[in-house]
Design a protein that fits this description.
268 residues, alpha/beta, D-Maltodextrin-Binding Protein, domain 2, 10-stranded mixed beta sheet, 40% helix, elongated
Length: 268
């Protein structure tokens, strides 16, 4: 064997011994994301199935799309159909695949002076809060959903800004303020369950379809990023929608709450 052949053989052996590049998922979220935390939790189990490791990175939804366009990820996990459909329409993603759900809940004092727990819908809950002028704390990450609920209740909360409708910097600040003032807030279930400031508060209104978020996995299109690991992205989507994925979701709890749920009955 010539020296050049020896060198080539040695290089090939070295390259084959190197670990495969980690499969990367970029999670689009405004603020703390139970979706990203769940993927971190489930990555070990999925790695046993896929044979490779997973890296989870968290960005704002807009920055997550930019990460896909810059070929920084193999798949994007996005919190809305519209965002994922846009990625596919632009040729940056191959498909929009619903993989699991998270949800928002209305929390407030355990005594519930406004009677939010008796409301049949989030809009009726907000009507009860407004009728009592009970303090309700809002923050940027959920304000779009909150305003949708106010519109359904036919109430404009803005005249009450600074009085009973109060702004907080982030979810934890809203939870802490609600606990201190005996008020209410709309927050993600997982964020509330993980908050050290939730003492004295309880989940009072939950389960309405309006409060659900279906997370969509979009594998990055090879035409955009030739090195994208589309096969592993598809395998991840199938695993999340399987019985094994549902078992992992049920196993991941925070403060007695299961923040992530299957998007539909799991397939065998």
């Amino acid at each position: 064997m010539t020296p050049s052949h020896v060198l080539a053989a040695g290089l090939a052996a070295t390259l084959s011994a190197l670990p495969a590049a980690a499969f990367t998922v970029v999670v689009g979220a405004d603020g703390p994301s139970p979706a990203a935390d769940f993927l971190d939790f489930a990555s070990t189990t999925f790695s046993e199935v896929s044979g490779g490791s997973i890296t989870v990175i968290e960005r704002s939804p807009g920055a997550a799309i930019l990460a896909v366009q810059n070929c920084e990820a193999d798949a994007a996990l996005l919190p809305s159909e519209a965002l994922a459909d846009g990625l596919v329409a632009e040729g940056d993603g191959t498909a929009r695949i619903p993989v699991f759900r998270t949800d928002h809940v209305i929390v407030g004092p355990k005594a519930d002076p406004a009677g939010v727990a008796n409301a049949s819908t989030p809009a009726r809950a907000y009507e009860a809060i407004a009728a009592r002028d009970a303090p309700v704390f809002t923050f940027a990450q959920t304000q779009a959903l909150e305003m949708q609920i106010w519109r359904e209740a036919a109430i404009d909360p803005r005249p009450g800004r600074g009085d009973w409708w109060r702004e907080a910097a982030d979810p934890d600040a809203a939870i802490a303020a609600a606990a201190s003032a005996g008020g209410y807030a709309l927050v993600e279930r997982g964020v509330f369950a993980a908050s050290p400031a939730r003492e004295g508060l309880a989940i009072l209104n939950e389960g309405h379809p309006m409060l659900a978020v279906t997370h969509q996995l979009a594998p990055v299109a090879p035409r955009r990023c030739p090195a994208a690991d589309t096969a592993t992205a598809q395998k991840l989507a199938e695993w999340l929608r399987s019985v094994d994925g549902a078992v992992a979701m049920a196993a991941w709890t925070i403060g007695g709450e299961a923040p992530v749920a299957p998007v539909e009955p799991a397939a065998n």
